[in-house]
Design goal:
GO biological process, one term: DNA recombination
Family: Belongs to the SbcD family.
Order of helices and strands: EEEHEHEHHEEEHEHEEEEEEHEHEHHH
Structural class: alpha/beta
Shape: globular
Protein name: Nuclease SbcCD subunit D
Keywords: DNA recombination, DNA replication, Endonuclease, Exonuclease, Hydrolase, Nuclease
Helix content: 25-40%
Pfam families: Metallophos (PF00149), SbcD_C (PF12320)
Low-confidence stretches: 206-210, 358-362
Strand content: 15-25%
Mean pLDDT: 90
Number of strands: 17
Distance between the termini: 78 Å
Number of helices: 11
CATH topology of the largest domain: Purple Acid Phosphatase, chain A, domain 2
CATH architecture of the largest domain: 4-Layer Sandwich
Length: 411
Amino acid sequence: MKILHTADWHIGQLFHEYDRTYEHQQFLSWLIATLQTEEIDVLLVSGDIFDISNPSASSIKMFYSFLKNAIKINPDIQIVITAGNHDSASRLEAPKPLLESSNVHIVGIVEKDVDGNIDYEKLLVPIYDDSKNVKIWCLAIPFLRMGDYPTLLNCANPYTEGVTALYKEAFEYVTLRKQDGQTIIAMGHLHTHHAEVSDLDKAERLIMGGVECIPASAFHEDIKYVALGHIHKAQRIGGQDHIRYSGSPLPMSFSELNYKHQVIVFKLDKEISELKSIEIPVSVPLQRIPQAPQPLHEVIGLLENLSEPDDIKEPFPYLEVRILLEGPEPALRHKIETALMGKKVRLAKIDVKYPSSTQQVSEFITPEKLNELQPIDIFDKVYQQRYNSEIPDTILQLFQQVTQEINQTAE
């Protein structure tokens, strides 16, 4: 059977406030064509279908239109979809009874019985061959939230050990169902040890509180393929070809400028064969000027002299401008937008860098010391930390004027 693995579509995402409907539609149209040309039997989508838990009506329509078109070109295709951390598990599962009649299986919720035991049957999706015999058992594991995985006593890392225990128990459960000639695959939406991450992945992990990582050893060696989502860079894990992130189909940040966004395709009988990545065409490119931060006057010159292909069409490329500043720059965005006037690019991000400080700026301040600090002291520390220079007299005078007006108002 031929399988395609993808993940992290993030339908409905805004890229620095720019709508991405066109890009998502281009990807889904490309994916439909790829399912047809590659003669795919099974489509695995490992989480983060949508960018937010309450997607817009147009995002939902795009998703279900894709499912309809995929089934239309191949009524026998089997599709397994799991929920990611951006998805609402219950909302994604809502049309499950209707979709299963079309061999579309969605797993978002980890169900438990009255005693708190996980219902592993609900996480198990049988995949059939042309003779309607079970050929593959898929452990369709969604993003696991607190309370989803087993609670272990006296363990050093409840999350890591709990998730590892869930995959172990799920594998043991499916081995009771597995017969000769059948194989096992798994899905997951999680962060594994040693996975390479983008800037957006790093930021999200900080927001989530630095959720612990899962070792590659959590997946039993008899699982023939592990289709992972959550990390946006396509990669194999633990040096093993069969444990993979497919990566996101669209660039999610400028740190992904040189990524090759892709889907993974392979054949699975008793073992994996003909595993390959298929690169996804870029519908709206990312552009960075300059490649490394430069002083503002040099950057303005580069932008004013920006050369563009004559045949470029909308939607225009996203642009990140990188600037090196010595201190605050009034009306910075206006100056850049003026230099870009008439250019066929869309200003998405201004990345400003300042000279690195050689001073030790970290200082522990006791509550007593904090009470003694005046507003000007705090402003001075923040300014020094950010710009690595003394506060200019003009800015200092403005700050003192503002604090004086605030004090007068308070009286």
